[in-house]
Structure formats: C-alpha cells, structure tokens
Amino acid sequence: MTSGVGLIVVAAGSSQRMGGTDKVWADLGGEPVICHSLRRLAPIASTIAVIVHPDWLRHARGVLHNLVPNIRIRSGGAERRHSVARGIEALGDGVTAIAVHDAARPFVPAEILADGLFRLATADGAVPALPPPQTVKAVEGDRITRTLDRSSLRLAQTPQVFRAAALRNTYDNADLDISAATDDAALAEAAGLNITVYPGAEQNFKITTPYDLDVARALLAAGVIR
To answer: What is the CATH number of the domain that holds 30?
Structure first.
C-alpha cells in the first residue's frame, strides 16, 4: 500500500453497447469484471472509491464491501465527470495523488499505476497510452479527408493519475467547459495542466462490446492472463 494514494474506480456507465448486460457486473472467471481491477490495484492505494450506477448500488455494497480494504462505494451521476467528482469527494482530503480507472479494464497491470505515480514527480498528471496499431483516417461523413500521422497519436488508457490538488482544482473550476471531455486527462488539458504520457499495456484493454467480454473470458480461461 502506498500512503496518500486514492483510487477511483468508475463503474457507473450505461453499457449501451453490451446489449443490455452491465459489463462491469458480467461474470469473468467466476466473479464480476469489476473485481479483477480492484484486486490488481488495491495493494497500491490507501483509499478506494468505487462509483457505480444507482441501480447497482445495493448489489455493489454486498459484493465489494469485504473485497479490498478501505473501500467506499457511492452511486454515480448523470455523466462520467459527475461520477468522478463524487469519487473525489468520497476519497476526502487525506490523499495526495488520485488515480481514476475504468472498471471495464479488468486486466490492468499494477505496474501501470505505480509508473504513473512515479511520473507525478515532474508532472500534474500522467496517462498510460499505446500508439495506434493501424492506419488512422480523418473523415467527413463517408469521405476520407486525410491520413493522420500515427507517430503523434496515442490511445489513452486508465488508470490516469493526478496530483490530488490539481484534479480537485480542475473539477472545482466553474469557468472550465468540461461538457465535451471523455476522460479526466481532457479536463486537465483544458485546465492547462502539465500532463505526461507513458507506455500502457496491450492487456489493459477495455470491455465495451460482447465480443470484448468473450475475448477477456477466453484469455483468462487459457491462462494467457493471470
């Protein structure tokens, strides 16, 4: 456990692309998807806030309350940024660094969180990412307008790690337009913070569709990921 590290695990989405299944509560190797990332990251965090969809709050408390130490379970808001804000509040003032992780990334290596925390020595925030493996096209409708230079592109992952004061100030900034932000790094960028990028991991993929869940189950069953 690393003193002063708060972990927010966001699990409050609607899972619209999962065909009616809430991905974070789907079975993966005999337990819900969310349990995997909690077990992997909990040893590094001193306090954990899990933010779930309101419909799953009672279930989450029953499943998770004894899974890892120092866990606080709260219901999420209408959008992701509202859920993260509730996570920041649940962590309280006793943390100096905050990591925000998507519960739908069950196979996150703990080393990614440790590496991100190390990089806070010289930055306000740190984001694990991978270069896109395929050619990326910019389009307008169904017309290709240009081919993007992959050397300057990265696919962002989580946990995204921030100095706690910097992340709190970002969420408290009433003048900041955060309506279009899809992750916390985007908010931090809009606030002018110094955000660095570092290598993520291929196994740290996000379960978004039923196909992704099938892949995760197959990898686990085959012993490719432990």
So the answer is: 3.90.550.10
* Domain assignment present for 167: yes
The count of structural domains within the chain is 1
Those residues whose C-beta lies under 8 Å from the C-beta of residue 196, and which sit 6 or more positions away, are: 119, 122, 123, 125, 126, 127
> Which domain range does residue 202 map to?
5-221
Do strands 137-140 and 195-199 pair parallel, antiparallel, or not at all (unpaired)? unpaired
Q: Across the chain, what does the average pLDDT equal?
A: 92
Beta bridge partners of 52: 11, 75
Residue 19 has pLDDT above 60, yes or no: no
- pLDDT for the residue numbered 34: 97
Alpha-carbon distance 188 to 134, whole Å? 27
The pTM assigned to this predicted structure is 0.94
